[in-house]
Amino acid sequence: MAAYNQHVQRGRSCIDVVHGYGSSGTGGVIKRRLRALLAAHAGQLSFVRGEDLDHNPGHTEVHPRNPLPTAADDLATAIIDYCSNARTLEKIAGRFRRHGMPAVQAAVRTLTASGRLRSAQRGAHKLFCSQ
Asked: Higher-confidence residue: 21 or 16?
């Protein structure tokens, strides 16, 4: 994502992503996941499959238009959705543990400071809520 966003900032028009065609020749995991990601962000970019461009299934040509959300942006959005019911930091961190505690804490701090999350004390627990 970072390389893509740098291309957008520099005004570059095309990124040729070489992902290979898969060891079985029927389509690899990397190719499928990349194209699913690109299709999910169709509003920010367009892409042409290599097999449609030059009959080479081992690459995809990406035409960026707008930056893609970063992992931190995705984490913040997911935390806001998760906190539709009040949650403790421990519950939030447990749910998003794959991001690591420092990233979760930083996201919660940023969201609270911006007003997108509210914090409240309930007994001995500090709760965070997005409503």
From this structure: 16
CA 15 to each of CA 19, 47, 48, 95, 97: distance values in angstroms, whole numbers, following the listed order? 12, 9, 11, 35, 32
Give the distance, in angstroms, between the CA of residue 78 and the centroid of all CA atoms in the same chain.
Answer: 10
Query: Taking the chain, what is the end-to-end CA distance rounded to the nearest angstrom?
Result: 30
In the chain, what are the domains?
2-64 (no CATH), 71-129 (1.10.10.10)
The full length of the chain comes to: 131
pLDDT tens string 79-112: 999 999 999 999 999 999 999 999 999 999 999 9
Q: For the chain, how many helices (H) and strands (E)?
A: 6, 6
